[in-house]
Design a protein that fits this description.
mainly alpha; three-stranded parallel β-sheet; two-stranded parallel sheet; 6 helices; 5 strands; 11% strand
Length: 157
């Protein structure tokens, strides 16, 4: 879990902070930080992963405000299940996730680039994912946590 924190939090923060000075000096550039729908609510059975993605969301939105008006754009990309081969390589069983819940990586990338061009700070690709993100944000936190836990248990969290 510490390695996960080093990758998802510390590396992302360091890379963002390393890239920004040159971009700010030029008055242009863009950074897309990859988060996940998992960062929108507490994620029982994947607590560290969800927490690291919540950091990505908060960090990116805060830095966006810090550099407002600089010409540099930031985006936090919050995809849901994406076909990348990661689950297979990591030995994670994902067959219980219905096919309709998955997006192709190319569709996620296209949605992110399109949103970045339009100046969208938070990009949630896919209609079902947008609906899920909206509902999660509208629910009381305790209810979202319980639903997340039930989904994690159901879909192999």
């Amino acid at each position: 879990e510490e390695e996960e924190i080093r990758l998802n939090v510390i590396a992302l923060m360091r890379l963002t902070r390393a890239a920004l000075p040159g971009m700010l000096k030029r008055g242009q550039g863009a950074i897309i930080n990859v988060s996940s729908l998992a960062g929108l609510a507490p994620l029982p059975l994947n607590a560290t992963y969800g927490a690291t993605k919540a950091f990505v969301n908060s960090f990116t939105e805060a830095v966006h405000e810090e550099i407002a008006g600089s010409g540099v754009r930031l985006q936090v990309l919050q995809p849901g299940f994406t076909r990348t081969g990661f689950q297979e390589r990591a030995g994670i069983e994902s067959s219980s996730v219905p096919d309709f819940a998955w997006m192709e990586a190319s569709a996620v990338v296209d949605a992110s680039i399109d949103a970045l061009r339009r100046g969208v700070l938070v990009c949630v690709p896919g209609g079902a994912n947008k609906l899920l993100a909206t509902l999660t944000g509208a629910l009381p936190r305790s209810f979202a946590r319980r639903i997340s836990g039930a989904a994690s248990r159901r879909f192999g969290g």
